Please model this.
Amino acid sequence: MVAKSITFKLLSCMLGAFAVIALSVLLLADFQVKDIINRSQNDIYREKLEAIIRFLEMRVEKLKATGMRAVYEEDFQDLALRTLRQTYYESPNQRIFPFILNMDGEVLMHPRLGHNDGTLRDLPYIQRMVRQKEGAFRYTDEAGEKRWGIFRRFGEWNWIVGFTVPVEIKYADARLLRNSLAVIMAVIMLIVIPVMSAILAGIISPVKRLTEASKAMASGNLDQPLHARGEDEVGILAANFIKMRNSIKEKIAALDDKNNELTREIAERKEAEAELRKYRTQLEDLVRERTRELEKANEQLKEIDTLKSMFIASMSHELRTPLNSIIGFTGVILQGLAGEITEEQRDQLQRVYASAKHLLDLITDVIDVSKIEAGKVDTYVEEIAVEKAIADAVNSLKVQIDGKGLGLETRIQPGLRVKTDRRRLTQCIINYLSNAVKYSEKGGITITAGETDGMVEIRVKDSGIGISEEDLPRLFNSFVRIESHLSTLSPGTGLGLYLTKKLATEILGGSVAVESSLGKGSTFILRIPREIPS
Ligand code: ADP
Model:
């Protein structure tokens, strides 16, 4: 956890960088200082060596001046060595000292070693000095101490003159500097670590707070206190975080509202549904009850219908028989077969005759309609010429046509035949034709018959009073009579067209139609199939 925190990471980075820099400085300082020391000490010791060499040269000069070099040489050498010993040696343990060897590696001058100590020739550094004329190098002496030495051959006496210093002393300054630097660095580190930690903690703490707030937000707590301080990146981040959190809060609040609203709506809807279910159950009960009532009423109606049919059947006989008698006897009297009658009697009887006939027509029509409505019509299908049916209709109305002085024209497609109920077809044509006669005062009637679209079409056209547009739609309804001066003159039941439509559609399997304009005449149309559909 600690290793993951930014403070730790930054601190380790900075300390790492500091350690690298410190180490580099130390190494560089050490290297540089050693280099400087090397150069300055080389000069110093070379100077010292030169002084000894100069001293020896002066001795040799003096020796030469004696003119008896061979005699005095050894004495001069001993004296020179003694003088040098006195000058340079203070104690046998001194660590910086000059020394002199001969070419056999024997010690001529040394603070501790004497001539009696034998040859040092086998030591590698002595060999090196024997081989070279001059030089400076590091070596390990016979006592195992690391040393640095500078030497030069003194040619006159073939001596090796050197000056030696322990490395430890030579580089003491450098070591001191390095150690002091290390201590300074360590102290700086010790001061820097807590200071840096404190500064970093200061920088990081807003980030930490932000992290905690974001953690709290992730676990659903949007109210963790958080303040955006400062205008640095972290401050801006915190400000934006707060803004974002507020906007989320607002959205959540809005969603909560919506949710509450929805919950309320659902509850209301459920309530309404329950209510509706209640009503539906009530309605179903009501429908069931009404259906039961309707079924009952239906049964009653059926009973009434049966009663009506029975009544009509019996009435037809009971009424028509006396009516036929009245008509028959009145006709006989009117024809004068039962003796002379006065004009007034004739007039009265004619009224009786007409009324009885009208009543008979009405009864016949009513019976026909009720039979069709009760579905009790037997059809008798036979193949007939359309021309024959039309001729029968015309014949039955010949008297009336001629009586009114109306012209009659028939245009029938030759050889047109149908398989249908002859009596019903003729009845339909008679109904159309009798109306054409009744509602025409002048002009003529044209009957046409032909085949269109696989149906036989019979049209009865007159030049009578015509029918207004608004009356046309109700023309084929029962008991409809349209007011006109002719309707009061000519007797009628208002059942003729209704019956025709019933016969045409329900018995003959066809249809009816009318085209008319008021004052100009009408055309009544009957369409039937060539064969009654079974
Ligand atoms: P009605 O016995 O009165 O003739 P219909 O059912 O045959 O009864 O006719 C209904 C009404 O239609 C008639 O009263 C008449 O006003 C009108 N009508 C029928 N045919 C014609 C026609 N050819 N010209 C004008 N009016 C007609």
The two ends are 99 Å apart (CA to CA). The CA atoms of residues 331 and 353 lie 7 Å apart. Residues 435-436, 439, 462, 464-465, 467, 475, 480-482, 487, 492-498, 522 surround adenosine-5'-diphosphate (CB under 6 Å).
